[in-house]
Design brief:
Order of helices and strands of chain B: HH
Oligomer: heterodimer
Strand content of chain B: under 5%
Structural class of chain A: alpha+beta
Distance between the termini of chain A: 46 Å
Radius of gyration of chain A: 30 Å
Helix content of chain B: over 70%
Structural class of chain B: mainly alpha
Shape of chain A: elongated
Largest sheet of chain B: none
Order of helices and strands of chain A: HHHHHEEHEEEEEHEEHHEHE
Number of strands of chain A: 11
Largest interface: A-B, 42 and 32 residues
Shape of chain B: flat
Helix content of chain A: 40-55%
Number of domains of chain B: 1
Chain lengths: 298, 59
């Protein structure tokens, strides 16, 4: 997210320049011109960063921006060059016009500002009307206990783990809709005793861990489109918490037996940080946005 | 000399700034990228309009 880096890196020099400009000229409008230029730079950086533009588009955007700003600079230079320094008839006529304007200034730019702010509010409200994309969950029929145990023995197998489910988001709105990521985890579960083992089955969403997803920008569903997210178990518990090689672990009855009482996987999701030790309480409080049981097969 | 309307303008401005900062912090992430791009462009236009407004008044 280089646009954010650029925002903060340029902010301090821009504030310093604004301070110097106002200190020397005491003219407020120059500060807004500097702010407008800074906003333009950040807008271009943002567009390049978040829309994953191709090299050609980035080059075109940078070239067009350079041409636009150079033309604007040239126009300003021409305008300043036309204004004579000596007190000629034209200079005094311009000065009296400026004096008359200051005496009764129009409010057209204020109205324009208000109009633009209203347009911004409309954009925000219309975008806000796009409620969450409809989510469908399709799970596997059952999960192999042996495959899951293999993940537990190895500790961490990454994206080549055990498939659990696919979340499909559908957007019927005419604007893109942002997917709000959630904490998703799975737990060993006993359907008879309703007991949840306090050992997290770490879920990967499209190959990345659930908590890591929340550190990245939320995904978007395009208008009239769908986005699918595959959930796999990539890690069980804390890797290497139980010492020994996979063969040594398999030889220990207490290690193999710890999962014997559980006959299902409980797949859960919540907006808050979630671990299997909290699941029972969160189920009781109705705080889970996803609560599905997937049977285990031998 | 400090007048009441200056105090009210200042406090009103502080509230407006707080609302903008709070909105950015809580809600901006929920808007799609295209909406954020459009808003950035409109902020640019707001700054330009204000620049012209103050330039007319020689401020």
């Amino acid at each position: 997210m280089f646009w954010q880096v650029l925002f903060w890196v340029l902010l301090v020099p821009v504030l310093i320049v604004m301070g110097i400009v106002y200190g020397t000229s005491k003219q407020l409008y120059k500060l807004f011109q500097i702010l407008a230029t800074y906003t333009y730079i950040i807008t271009i950086a943002y567009v390049i960063d978040v829309f994953d533009l191709s090299r050609d588009w980035i080059l075109a955007l940078l070239t067009l921006s350079a041409i636009l700003l150079l033309i604007l600079g040239y126009q300003l230079t021409k305008r300043h060059a036309k204004e004579p320094v000596s007190s000629s008839k034209r200079a005094s006529k311009r000065a009296s016009k400026a004096k008359a304007r200051r005496a009764s200034p129009s409010r057209k730019w204020l109205w324009a500002t208000l109009g633009v702010v209203l347009v911004m509010l409309v954009v925000i409200i219309v975008s806000g009307f796009a409620s969450d994309a409809a989510r469908e969950v399709s799970t596997v029929e059952s999960v192999s206990k042996a495959e899951l145990f293999n993940v537990a023995v190895k500790g961490n197998v990454g994206p080549s783990g055990v498939n659990l489910a696919t979340l499909t988001y559908t957007n019927d709105f005419f604007l893109p809709v942002v997917i709000q990521d959630e904490f998703i985890t799975a737990c060993w579960y006993s359907t008879s005793t309703r007991e949840v083992l306090a050992e997290d089955l770490q879920i990967l969403i499209n190959g990345a861990y659930s908590y890591q997803d929340l550190m990245r920008p939320f995904g978007e569903v395009p208008p009239g489109g769908t986005v699918a997210r595959k959930l796999t178990v990539g890690q069980i518990g804390v890797p290497y918490a139980v010492p020994g090689t996979p063969e040594e672990k398999l030889a220990r009855d207490d290690y193999v037996g710890r999962y014997a009482a559980y006959d299902a996987v409980l797949l859960v999701a919540s907006a808050d940080m979630l671990s299997c030790s909290d699941v029972a309480a969160m189920r009781a409080d109705g705080k889970l946005s996803l609560d599905i049981t997937i049977p285990l097969r031998e | 000399m400090l007048r009441l309307e200056h105090v009210l303008y200042s406090v009103g401005g502080l509230f407006a700034a707080s609302a903008i900062i709070y909105f950015s912090w809580e809600y901006l992430d929920l808007l799609p990228r295209i909406a954020k791009t459009v808003l950035l462009g409109l902020v640019l236009v707001v700054f330009l309009c204000l620049a012209y407004h103050f330039q007319e008044r020689d401020l």
